[in-house]
Amino acid sequence: MDHCKIMNCFKFYFKRKLSVFSLVFLVSFLCTNIGFTALHNQDGQEQKFENPISPKQKLLTLDSVKVLILKAKAGDIHAQDELMEIFYRGLYRIFLTPETIDFISWKSQGPENNIQNRCFSNDIYAFFAIYHFEKIGTQFTRLFETAKERAERGIAAAQNNLGFMYAEGRIVKQDYKEAFKYYKLAADQGLSPALGNLGNLYLFGRTVKQDYKEAFKYFKLAADQGEAIAQSYVGLLYLAGLGVKQNHKEAFKYYMLAADQGYDIAQSHVGAMYLKGTDVKQDYKEAFKYFKLAADQGWAIAQYELGEIYLKGTGVKQDYKEAFKYFKLAADQGYAIAQYKISNMYAEGIGVDKSYLKAIYWIIKDYIGRANAIFQ
C-alpha cells in the first residue's frame, strides 16, 4: 500500500471528520486490494449483461461454500463453476485460494475442460488465475495475451480483466491509464463490475482527477445491479458524506444489501451500526451476529470487534478467554490494535497465562505494524 493511498484516507478523515471506525474501514478497503470482477461471458458471444445476482438471493453461508469446495475437488464441474462465480463476486475469497480448492488439479470430462483451457476461454476462470498469478502463474503464461486478444474483440469481461491487470500490476506493469481505458470500454457495455472499478479510480484519483461525485455515480450504477462490493462502497460514501449528502439510513441499507450476499466487509459494517445504534435501533444480538459472520470469513476487524464484545460483556456473557481468542485471530493477521490488546492481556494475565516476554513481543509487532502502515 503506497504513501499516497494512506494520505488520501487521512485527508478524508480530517476533512470530513469521519469516525475512527470509518477511517479504519476505508484504509482496510485499500489494504485488501479487493478489485471488482467481470460477469461470465461465453467465448465470442455478443450478449446483454444481465445482473447475475438476484435481489432475493439467499445469504451464501460458509458451510455451503465448504460443501462446494468438496464437490469441486471431486470433479463436479457445476460446483467448480459456482465457486468461480462466488470468487468473481468478491465473496469468501479468503477460503477460495488455489491451495484450498486444489485449483490446478481440477479436471472434468473432455480435454477442452482441463483447467488451463478453461482459463484461456472463460473470463471467470481467467480472473481467478490472474488474481492468484504469483502463486500459479507458471501454469498460465498466456493469460495476458489471451485477455488482450479477447478484449480487442469487444468482450467486456475480458476488457475488465485486462483493466484489473493494469490497475493491480498483475502480470503487467501497473498502469492506471490503461486500466481506466479498459474499464471504460467494459463499462460502456453496461458491465457492472467495470462500473464499480471506475468508481474506485475516481474515489482515489488514480489517473483521473479525484471526484467523489463521479465515484458515487459509478458505484451506485454497479450497486443497483447487485454488485456486493459496489453496494458496500455506496454504504461507505453515504456514511462518510463523500460525493453525496451524508445519510446513515442509506448507508445501512446498502451495507445490508451487500451483507445479505455474504460480503464480509459489509457484514462487519452492519455489525458496527447495530452495536452503536447508528440511525438503526441498537441491537447487541444483531451486532454479534453480523460480526460473527464476517469474523468466520477471516475479516480481522470483525474478529477484533468480537474480542471487544467478549472483553466488555456487551450483549454476551463476559468471557476473557473468548476475547483473547478473537483478538489473537486478528493480531495474527497483522491488525495492529488487536496486537496491542494481546500485549496488554499477556501483561495482565487476562484470559491467558501472564507472560511479560510475550507482551513485549506483541507490543513490538504492534509498533512495527503501525509504522509500516504509515511509511510503506
Overview of the structural elements:
This protein has a domain of 173 residues. The chain starts with a helix and ends with a helix. It is mainly α and 376 residues long. It contains 20 helices and no strands.
Summary, kept brief:
It is built from 20 helices and no strands. The protein has 376 residues and is mostly helical. The radius of gyration is 21 Å and the shape is globular.
Write down the Rg. 21 Å
SSE topology string: HHHHHHHHHHHHHHHHHHHH
Average pLDDT reading: 85
3D shape: globular
β-strand percent reads under 5%
Which runs of at least 5 residues are low in confidence (pLDDT < 50)?
Answer: 1-25, 27-34, 37-57
Number of strands: 0
The computed structural class is: mainly alpha
Q: What is the end-to-end distance?
A: 7 Å
The total count of helices amounts to 20
How much helix, percentage-wise, in residues? 55-70%
Report the major sheet. none
Question: How are the SSEs placed, and which strands pair?
Answer:
Blueprint: H1 3-16, H2 20-31, H3 62-73, H4 77-88, H5 115-121, H6 123-131, H7 133-136, H8 143-152, H9 156-168, H10 176-187, H11 192-204, H12 212-223, H13 228-240, H14 248-259, H15 264-276, H16 284-295, H17 300-312, H18 320-331, H19 336-348, H20 356-375
Helix pairs in contact: 1-2, 3-4, 4-6, 5-6, 6-9, 8-9, 9-10, 10-11, 11-12, 12-13, 13-14, 14-15, 15-16, 16-17, 17-18, 18-19, 19-20
